[in-house]
Every structure is written in C-alpha cells, then in structure tokens.
Amino acid sequence: MAKPTVYGSPLSTYVRATRLTLAEKGVDYDHVDVGVLDGECRQAAHSVRNPFGKVPAFEHDGVMMYETSAITRYIDQAFDGPSLTPSAARDQARMNQIIGIHDSHGYNAVIAGTVAYFFFPDFIGGQDDARLAEGKAMSATCLSEYERLMGDDPYLAGENMSLADLYIVPPYFYLSLTPVADELLGPREKLRAWWDRISARESVGATEPQLG
After folding, report:
1. Domain tally for the chain?
2. Which of 10, 113, 115, 170 has its CA 20 to 30 A from that of 212?
3. In a domain, 84, yes or no
C-alpha cells in the first residue's frame, strides 16, 4: 500500500491529531510542512489540496482529502493496527460527540480564543481581553463536557483510547502551557489523570510541536 502524505504545519492542532492517528496505527508517512502563521496554507500551491486554505490535507493512493474528522476516520479504517473507534454504539456516539464539540466550539475557544492570545497574538489581530474572556468561558464549558462524557472511564470515550482522545491531546497540550492553565485545568481531576495517562504514550512525545 502506498505511503500517505500529510500536508500542514506541525504547529497545527489538527495536523497533530492526524499524525497521532497515523502513529497509533503504526503507519509510516511523509509530512510536508505547510505554514499557517505565514499564510502559506492560503497560497495557490496548497489551494489545490484544500480550497478553503486550511490544514491538514492528506493524500493516499492518488486521492486527496481534507477535514480532520474525515482523514482520521479514513486512516482508522484503511490501515491495519488497533482500532481507534469503539465497538459499542454508545461509546462511538461519545467519540463522535467529543469530536463534534471540539470542531464546533472547542477549537475557536481554546486555540483561537485563549492559546493564541498568549502565543500567537498577531495571528488573531492582537490581544483582545474581551475575546480572551469569551474564549476562557467557552473553553471551560467544553472541558466540563469532555469530563462529563468521559464519566469514570480511563479514556474520553470508553475503556480504550479512541479518535476522541487523539483529537483533544493537541489543544489540551497548548492550553496546559498558558498562564490560565491552573484556572481552567486545575479543577478537572479526571481530565488531568487522563492527560497523565495519554501523554506518556510514544505517539504523543513523537508529535509534540517544537516551539523553540
């Protein structure tokens, strides 16, 4: 089977979620860096991969695709290795719900609304305190929902790790580095235990972005 290619910056949370999925499936792949902060992802060379100017894009067996939820599900189905989709319908629903929460609310709150304020302010047009407050509030709601949906299980969608966990690792990592980490993550004992568990995995260390 042909080696897949991931296009996108290693700083991107969605690129990292894709790379985490490949790593957990034991898939060898090529990675082509496409800058986000410098706008490379919106240039013509990348627009043929994703007309919306986002990352990642993913190529395999001559087929190009985008949207991380589609890419990661494809990887899980197309390649050998441990399944990253729960077998029980209830747990599949939890996985899909957590991914949907992040796509609809979590990314804008955690990354664009909170993390970027401290680390990438130029990317969002400067430090806006009102936007930070909104980002923190919505981040807290998302984190509360992840913890509620997790219940007493060791992973976000059940007894075993799933795509939901790989989706949330990258934004959680960035959030843990911010000055508001204690405020947002400190009270969430179950999520902190989850992080201790999953951050010890080889795939998480291998894909950690180099922030200089």
Report:
1. 2
2. 113
3. no
